[in-house]
Amino acid sequence: MKQRVPVSEIMTRELVTLTPKDSLYDAEKLFKKHNIRHLPIVEDKKLVGVVSYSDLLKISYADVTEENDIEAVVYDMYTIPQLMAKSPVIVGPDATIKEVTEILSGVTFHSIPVVKDEELVGIVTTTDLLKYFIDQY
């Protein structure tokens, strides 16, 4: 297996993001349209948080009733800043795949934003890591 491979080799560079002013409806649309599970929240290219699809699911089913409009009610109750992780763990593009794997193996979240000079430049997920390790065999 290769040693000291930087995470920049496997991170997603074409990012789908939201701003704190966007709505949870916007988040749900992007999750479904792009088949992704993590959305970095940015202001002027600076990372301010992360929202995951599981975060959205947790509030969507918090008060399940027989009404069809439960998501509408819940989505109107919360904002992106209320739901997002406000201090996500980040790494630089030179962090190694091993370092990122060690971080993700010990936590409950599944993505790490990649930041260079305070600007969001990528995101690496457990899926990216799994694909990398599969390619090694």
Automatic annotation (TrEMBL):
Native source species: Sphingobacterium yanglingense
TM ranges are none
Gene3D superfamilies recorded for this chain?
A: CBS-domain
| PROSITE patterns tied to this protein | CBS
Name-wise, this protein is CBS domain protein
Segments forming domain CBS: 11-70, 84-137
Q: Which Pfam family, giving just one, matches this sequence?
A: CBS
Please give the InterPro entries that the UniProt record associates with this protein: CBS_dom (IPR000644), CBS_dom_sf (IPR046342), Diverse_CBS-Domain (IPR051257)
What are the entry keywords? Answer: CBS domain
The protein's matches in SMART domains, at most eight in alphabetical order, are given as:
CBS
